[in-house]
Q: What sequence folds into this?
């Protein structure tokens, strides 16, 4: 039989995952897996002692998946990951078409197939969905897990509103695949996936094209910049919302702005960001 580890947090899915550990493991057993449930410990590498397993199943959101990815890469492993959505936004799981029902998601993984998808790396730190900095982008880091579990995505909005008081532009020197430009930006979003916090912000993104989809919101006055972002979200193409695709991006700034990877603390400036084509194995539902 194949060997799998089921990595979960007792708080995942408001406790729903913990109540269904046995049922989830039985789904994998029915499909030829010997599955070991393992409580997540963010101070310990979950692949320690699990270097030869066939599958690591992770219950959680993008941050939990980010933790598993970086833990795996730290040990130089290339083991397929499966994700059971149990976070607040579950952006990457949404791209994969995973069911919100944990038992159905487990079936999708257990009966599914492995796909090679892209992942990002910034200064040696890997990410599955988005690297970002600027207004609102570090909101997830400051939003408590208790509040996320209690009110879901609304927690991000409440925390994000507080940031309006500290709006500032970040001076940037950018080199994207050899295209160089300077700007003062309010928001920078480097997408491997398609959404952030459940909001669909990209138009062409794919996790299999070997490219990032990037959005830079240039700072004008607050009203002008806010209006431009609103027009962009409604399908417009305002000039101060710069869009591009790139495989490699270098960013320098005179300001060491806080950054975010998949809702977790990110890298420090200067930034070297690269899209690693097909560098991640994901086991997910078979394409119909």
A:
């Amino acid at each position: 039989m194949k060997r799998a580890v089921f990595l979960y947090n007792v708080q995942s899915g408001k406790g729903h995952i913990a109540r269904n550990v046995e049922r989830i493991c039985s789904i994998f057993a029915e499909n030829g897996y010997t599955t070991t449930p393992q409580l997540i410990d963010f101070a310990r590498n979950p692949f320690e002692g699990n270097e030869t397993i066939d599958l690591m199943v992770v219950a959680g959101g993008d941050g939990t998946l980010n933790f598993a990815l970086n833990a795996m890469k730290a040990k130089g492993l290339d083991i397929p990951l499966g994700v059971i959505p149990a976070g607040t936004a579950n952006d990457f799981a949404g791209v994969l078409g995973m069911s919100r029902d944990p038992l159905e998601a487990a079936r999708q993984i257990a009966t599914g197939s492995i796909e090679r998808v892209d992942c990002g790396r910034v200064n040696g730190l890997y990410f599955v969905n988005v690297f970002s900095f600027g207004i609102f982008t570090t909101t997830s880091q400051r939003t408590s897990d208790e509040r996320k579990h209690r009110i879901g995505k609304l927690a991000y909005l409440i925390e994000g509103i507080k940031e309006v008081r500290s709006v500032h532009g970040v001076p940037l020197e950018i080199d994207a695949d050899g295209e160089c430009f300077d700007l003062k930006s309010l928001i920078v979003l480097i997408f491997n996936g398609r959404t952030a916090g459940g909001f669909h912000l990209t138009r062409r993104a794919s996790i299999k094209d070997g490219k990032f989809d990037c959005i830079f919101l240039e700072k004008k006055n607050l009203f002008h910049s806010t209006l431009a972002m609103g027009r962009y979200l409604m399908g417009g193409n305002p000039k101060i919302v710069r869009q591009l695709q790139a495989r490699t991006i270098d960013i320098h700034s005179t300001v060491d702005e806080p950054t975010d990877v998949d809702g977790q603390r990110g890298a420090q400036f200067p930034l070297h960001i690269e899209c690693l084509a097909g560098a991640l194995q994901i086991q997910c539902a078979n394409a119909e």
About this structure: The radius of gyration is 19 Å. Residues 163 and 242 are 22 Å apart (CA to CA). The chain has nine helices and 17 strands.
